[in-house]
């Protein structure tokens, strides 16, 4: 395997980003964060329609970079500068993932803890193997939540469950994650890769422009009134009405066949 911290493969409309520091369980080092941002930039210029994020070596992502954390304890850095570093590192990467214009799938095999769990839930869809484990373990190192926990986690599991997860810092398995709505699907090892591939291929075959507006509208929905949501949906629909994919979808429906969208 390559010694690059982040690998990118684009094939058949599916972009796969692989975190590739298995000896560190793919913790969010500076090199991984920069590699992810570079990969997303490269995907911008490709024909990809969906992004899958995974980890190598049996771990999804073990959270924040302990080395950077130790540097913060030993170096005499002003508090304001440390806060700025926190804002510019992992939060920037996870925000980019959350706001990315293409649908994103977290393919979670092995541990996803701390900021690594947040990377998973910053994606649009979470698919886990039976070997996956999760934990919002900030309390274990005497920290409050960060990397978007307060925004992302309650939206998936509800406020009371989110509070329990962060106050206890418990590590829990894929079955519990599915029960509380943290992940969409759990598959055993024998079918895990195949099921993720099927899901990614189905999404990749969809109408890109419509999906781009749909994702934005859904992400913004919690902050809007029903009236504003419907107005924004109507505006977006007026744009999508003009796409070739919409015309293809209507023609395919009338002809009783599956549509063949081209992303325009």
UniProtKB/TrEMBL annotation:
One of its GO terms (molecular function) is catalytic activity. Gene3D superfamilies: 2-enoyl-CoA Hydratase, Chain A, domain 1 (3.90.226.10), Lyase 2-enoyl-coa Hydratase, Chain A, domain 2 (1.10.12.10). It comes from the Archaea. InterPro entries: ClpP/crotonase-like_dom_sf, Enoyl-CoA_hyd/isom_CS, Enoyl-CoA_hydra/iso, Enoyl-CoA_hydra_C. It holds the Pfam family ECH_1. PANTHER family: EG:BACN32G11.4 PROTEIN, ENOYL-COA HYDRATASE. This is Enoyl-CoA hydratase. It comes from Halovenus carboxidivorans.
